[in-house]
């Protein structure tokens, strides 16, 4: 079985190195590169061709969501996970709306992070268990802003969001709704 290759981008050196060590101890992940400098990421992606990219949400000079959008515009097409301290609903919504394949918290257990990385590599959208209730709140809110994120969702996207908030995988959602796995991924991205 081949290892899942990742690049880790976080401006906190101790956290970055410690997480890299913990992930590699799993025996399922190889951290091919890590950096605290967002300007290095495109070069590292070209050099290492990872399976998954993990980005900190808040970094000096940029944020993980903006960096992800820039990389996607430059034709880097791979699963991107946002790893952050932020439990803010707005950050969660913004990350998923921008196309992140997952939103993980730095407070998660290492085995949960490993599982999320492996699931993202398989094409699933992953959200930290502590954030699923916030997904439900985002779904249930009847915000006063007519242009709110939830108002922009189609009925099918809302249905998929409900399943995601229960912690279901993309494959399980596809089976439950009798649609393809790729269709689920497309709706999650929107």
Walkthrough of the structure:
This protein is an alpha/beta fold. It has a single domain (4-189), classed as Response regulator (Rossmann fold), CATH 3.40.50.2300. Helix content is 47%, strand content 17%. The protein has helices at 13-25, 41-48, 64-73, 89-97, 110-121, 132-140, 155-165, 170-177, 181-189; strands at residues 4-9, 29-35, 52-56, 58-59, 62-63, 80-84, 102-105, 126-127. The strands form two sheets. Strands 2-1-3-6-7-8 form a six-stranded parallel beta sheet, with helices on both faces. Strands 4-5 form a two-stranded antiparallel ribbon. Strand 7, helix 5 (110-121) and strand 8 (126-127) form a beta-alpha-beta unit. Helix 6 (132-140) runs antiparallel to helix 7 (155-165) and helix 8 (170-177) packs across helix 9 (181-189). The longest helix is centred in the first third of the chain and has 13 residues, at 13-25.
């Amino acid at each position: 079985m081949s290892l899942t290759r990742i690049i880790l981008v976080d401006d906190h050196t101790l956290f970055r190195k410690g997480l890299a060590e913990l992930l590699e101890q799993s025996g399922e992940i190889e951290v091919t590169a890590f950096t605290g400098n967002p300007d290095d990421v495109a070069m590292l992606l070209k050099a290492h061709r990872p399976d998954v990219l993990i980005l900190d949400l808040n970094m000096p000079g940029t944020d993980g969501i903006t960096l992800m959008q820039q990389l996607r515009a430059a034709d880097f097409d791979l699963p991107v996970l946002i790893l952050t301290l932020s439990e803010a609903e707005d950050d969660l919504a913004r990350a998923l709306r921008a196309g992140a394949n997952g939103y993980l918290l730095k407070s998660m257990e290492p085995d949960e992070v490993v599982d999320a990385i492996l699931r993202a590599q398989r094409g699933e959208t992953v959200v930290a268990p502590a954030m699923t209730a916030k997904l439900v709140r985002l779904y249930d809110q009847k915000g006063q802003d007519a242009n709110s994120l939830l108002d922009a969702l189609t009925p099918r996207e809302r249905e998929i969001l409900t399943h995601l908030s229960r912690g279901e995988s993309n494959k399980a959602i596809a089976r439950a709704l009798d649609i393809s796995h790729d269709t689920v991924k497309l709706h999650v991205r929107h």
